[in-house]
From TrEMBL:
Pfam families reported for this sequence: F-box-like
Protein name: F-box domain-containing protein
InterPro entries in alphabetical order: F-box-like_dom_sf (IPR036047), F-box_dom (IPR001810), Pectin_lyase_fold/virulence (IPR011050), SHCBP1-like (IPR045140)
CDD domains given in the database record: F-box_AtSKIP5-like (cd22163)
GO cellular component, one term: nucleus
Record Gene3D superfamilies: 1.20.1280.50
Domain F-box: 26-62
């Protein structure tokens, strides 16, 4: 009896069926993943998935301005990132700098992620 042929996950063109989805559909799927580690690991699959998983629509970044160019999805401080965010967005606070935020009211569900070793929250109370 001849050995059974194993089915491949790839379609007739040799491409996985998920790769036949358009970019908007894949980004919608990626938006349901937890930012760390799932969405981050998704970015490691291929160049297309990296572009989509790191798209500014899915991640807003707070970074110190290194140059004068304006990059979409990058904000100089947490206040501006929170005000630009839509419900369910993820804000990634970059390491390597000091980010001070005071009196921020967040009235929408957001995920704020930082890779810093030390996180310090300072609150001032008026007496």
């Amino acid at each position: 009896m001849p050995p059974k042929r194993q089915r491949s996950a790839a379609g007739p063109s040799g491409e996985a069926p998920v790769n036949s989805l358009d970019d908007g559909c894949l980004m919608h799927i990626f938006s349901f993943l937890s930012p760390i580690p799932d969405r981050y690991n998704t970015a490691l699959v291929c160049h297309r998935w990296r572009f989509l998983a790191c798209h500014p629509r899915l991640w807003l970044r707070v970074e110190r301005p290194i140059r004068n160019t304006i990059e979409p999805g990058v904000y100089p401080n947490l206040e501006s990132a929170v005000s630009a965010a839509r419900p369910g967005d993820t804000i990634l606070i970059a390491a390597g700098g000091t980010h001070v935020a005071r009196n921020i009211q967040i009235k929408k569900p957001l995920c704020i992620v930082s890779f810093s070793i030390h996180v310090c929250y300072i609150s001032r109370v008026k007496v």
